Amino acid sequence: MSHKKTAEAMIKCAGPIESALLPRLLHVTEAAAIAASYQMGRGDKHYADQVSVEAMRRTLNYLDMKGIIKIGEGERDEAPMLYIGEHVGTWEGDLEVDIAVDPLEGTNLAANGTPGAISVMAMAERGGLFHGPDIYMDKIVVGPEVVKYERKHPEDSINLDAPVRDNLEIVAKALNRNIDELVVVILDRPRHEAKIKEIRETGARVNLITDGDLMPGVATAIRGSGVHVVMGAGGSGEAVLTAAAMKILGGKILARLVLPTVANGKSEEAIAKEKAEKMPRLEKMGITEKNMGDVLDTNQLVPGNDVIFSATGVTPGTILKGVNLFGEGDARVHSLTMGSSGVVKFTDTIYIHDKEATPLRFV
Hints:
5-stranded mixed sheet; D-Maltodextrin-Binding Protein, domain 2; globular; alpha+beta; Fructose-1,6-Bisphosphatase, Chain A, domain 1
């Protein structure tokens, strides 16, 4: 009896980056997550971030690729490693990749031992990731059902400038739900007070989070996650990483750059000062005051066609479990990896240093 060779077809259509680097990318985020987990709950977010950065960079440099950090820990004079523009990998072989990293997304979460901290990164071919500055992006993230609905109803599309109610009505129709059945994730920040009020006035439920809106964004594209929309202003790097996942999973993100002083409603004097400090650097990236307000979609944030994504849990979250340390330096980690071919993997990995002292067991 004939049958569709679905898995074979998907594996065959994987690009060179996915084929060569996705299995290794898992090791990179796992190494960073395990390093950070030793600092979980110790209250020092800077050191937790430092050890995860160091572990991620060391592991990245084992990979045969010509990698350039496009989204990283900041500018070269602000970050000792994984800075924007840094070259990583062996620089051997033919693979030229752009890289977005966040070795510890949710530094406060890890330091305080609260849910949702992850280690995450994405790669694409050269020019395949938005080379953005380390400021904010205001965004809205929805799943593939909404994209499908928009394709059938082009007059009914998510719009970053539309009232909250209009956007939630579209999501509700796409998911065949009532608005009061929707869950909207948003960072608990003073800058979002008005938006939170608008969301609640529609009847939708609000899930306020203290940090880490990247994985909730990914969750919008995973049926059964309990997350239907992510809104609000957060880090631009997290928005690009979210876009990489949306590009693979078929979801959608709309985002625009915004200066932190503007997003947080600071004084005109504070806004002018930040512009004076940051606009010269932004203009070198092609970002001016005129085009900063342009709305960027998924394909503008991640124009690449050979995109890979990996995230490993540090502390337990909705999608990923946290690192479980046991024995003498042993660890169990839970990760999500995926590539443009459409192959998505949830991986449960156990690292055992001494098989005799710590034999593998069912739990």
